[in-house]
């Protein structure tokens, strides 16, 4: 059976180019083209494509939010989504992966690489443009180093100091932390000041940033806006 591919791109010329490419590729079949997020969601529900080529700048919701909607709405096996973009930020890369994208290709990717990527993700692999892959590797290396450093950093703190730092990183006030931990506000200040001294930081903003870097607080996944 041919791999069913849905094209979702706000630019007519881009859709035409991809349709032409798919028509010449053995084993691939275009099942529809959408110019916006509403069309992409409707066609995905109607045709159950194996792979979706999803423009990150898709009109209305954008490609990342549309991907999340489609993946979450799939009744059984969700389609594999390749996000396409002229350029992409590190934040967009992470967001795309969090909502279930199986690949990220820049729009200067060659036709041969695009076809190979579609075939790869359809069988369960992932596909990235080389520059995107390099940034993923750099980010992973940085996180691994940061996590190792964070472990030794937090080891300097007492359990109560760590607990206070976690609440500060969540954006809570000293009075709120005091109520939560059933201690006085003065005690909260004491633990926070001691923690900041040990960590070599001088502001509450730095404490918040460090809390995230050390993994004391994990950012929630973004929610799509319908």
Architecture overview:
InterPro entries: CheY-like_superfamily (IPR011006), NreC/VraR/RcsB-like_REC (IPR058245), Sig_transdc_resp-reg_C-effctor (IPR016032), Sig_transdc_resp-reg_receiver (IPR001789), Tscrpt_reg_LuxR_C (IPR000792), WalR-like (IPR039420). The modification 4-aspartylphosphate is found at residue 55. Keywords: DNA-binding, Phosphoprotein, Transcription, Transcription regulation. This is LuxR C-terminal-related transcriptional regulator. The chain has 226 residues and is of the alpha/beta class. It has helices at 12-23, 37-47, 63-73, 90-98, 111-122, 130-154, 159-169, 174-181, 185-199, 204-213; strands at residues 3-8, 28-34, 51-55, 80-85, 103-106, 127-128. Helix 2 runs parallel beside helix 3 and helix 7 packs across helix 9.
**Category by helix and strand content:** alpha/beta
Q: Which stretches are low in confidence, meaning pLDDT under 50 for 5 or more residues running?
A: 220-226
* Average pLDDT over all residues: 85
Alpha carbon gyration radius: 23 Å
Q: Can you count the helices?
A: 10
Task: Give the DSSP E fraction (strand runs of 2 or more residues).
Answer: 5-15%
Major sheet details:
6 strands, parallel
- How far from one another are the termini? 34 Å
Strand order of the largest sheet: 2-1-3-4-5-6
Strand elements, count: 6
Helical content stands at 40-55%
Protein name: LuxR C-terminal-related transcriptional regulator
Keywords: DNA-binding, Phosphoprotein, Transcription, Transcription regulation
Pfam family, one: Response_reg
Modified residues (4-aspartylphosphate): 55
